[in-house]
Design a protein that fits this description.
Layout lengths: L1 E5 L2 E5 L2 H10 L5 E3 L10 E3 L5 H8 L18
Antiparallel strand pairs: 1-2, 3-4
Length: 77
Amino acid sequence: MIKARMNNQILLGLSHANLDRLRADGVKGGIHIKGAELLLDFDIYITAAPNEGILLEAMSDMIGPDTKVNIDKRLKS
């Protein structure tokens, strides 16, 4: 994986091996990026699932009343 911060952009370059691992591990696995590595005051967590519904269900215990969740309006029914 390649991680870079360029002005106001973050670049995360995932290899096919990273993507294969995300697909194989599903929501039980993931990639954790410490924000300090990119001079950020927050961490980044990347995970994957077959669809957004599964992602939301898996993350429901981490999402609280102050959590901002964005789902592309094209995916909402």
